[in-house]
Specification:
The chain is mainly alpha-helical. It has one domain. 53% of the residues lie in helices and 0% in strands. It is elongated and about 45 Å long.
């Protein structure tokens, strides 16, 4: 998540480069850093899966009644807060 945060054009929809080829190049750079295949955009798929899981986690928190013994944010989602 920290690496993705360095490239604003990847996640910020109001960025002028969001729908540009620069976005694809950024995903390629991120994938190279973590040895992921660029042809399948594996880095982008992993990021979207983590983001979706975090969104579902937040939605689940909203449905819990107060005082139910809710724990802190899980370790895997702490960098997304």
């Amino acid at each position: 998540m920290e690496e993705v945060a360095r490239y604003e054009c990847v996640y910020h929809r109001n960025s002028k480069d969001f729908k540009d080829k620069k976005k694809a190049n950024c995903w390629e750079k991120i994938g190279e850093k973590f040895n992921l295949s660029a042809a399948e955009a594996e880095a982008e798929v992993r990021f979207r899966n983590i983001r979706t899981a975090y969104g579902r986690y937040l939605k689940r928190l909203k449905t819990l009644p107060s005082g139910s013994g809710r724990d802190a944010v899980p370790r895997e989602f702490q960098s997304l807060e």
